[in-house]
Design brief:
The chain has about 180 residues and is an alpha/beta fold. It has five helices and ten strands. It has a single domain, classed as 3-Layer(aba) Sandwich (Rossmann fold).
Amino acid sequence: MPNNFFVTGRPGSGKTSVIERTMSILRERGLRAGGIYCPEIREGGVRLGFKIIDIMTGEGRILAHVGQREGPQVSKYRVNVVNVDELSEAAIGRALREADFVVIDEIAPMETYSEGFKRSVLDALDSPKPLLAVIHQRTRTGFIGGIKARDDIKILEVMPGTQARLPKQLAELVAGAPK
C-alpha cells in the first residue's frame, strides 16, 4: 500500500489549493505538517517568480525570479539553486524528524536543478512517513519520471470534477497510511 500521495494537473487547476485544504483537514485531526511549499510572487497581478517556504518555521527564500541574474533558466525565471538546496534540505529534514506527514509543493523542473532538493525528495519517498506532494504533470523522464514510475506512490489528478472531493480523499489516504 503506498504512503506517497501526489496530485498533478494542468497549470492553474488548483493543485496547491487541494494540498492546502488537505493540510487543513489533517491539522484539524491533530496531525503536524512539515516540508515546503512554493507560492507565486506577484506584483500588480503579474507573476514575477516563486518563493520556497518551510511549512514548520515559516522561513522563506526566493526560489526563482525574473529579476535574478544568475542560475538555470526555466521559462522567464532564473532558479536560485543555493536557496532551494538549503531550504529544502532543512525543511524536509525537519519534517522527517518532527512532523506527522511531509508536504512538498512542488516537484517540478525548477526545483530539480537542486541536488539537495532531489536528495531530500528521495529521503521523503523512502521514509515511512506519509508524503503529500504536487508533481509536474507533463514530465515523464528524468528525476520526475523516475518518481512517477515507483510502485509506492499514488497520483491523483486535479480537474474541475475532482477538485472539491480530493482534499478529503487525500486526508483519508494520508491519515490511514502505514507509518
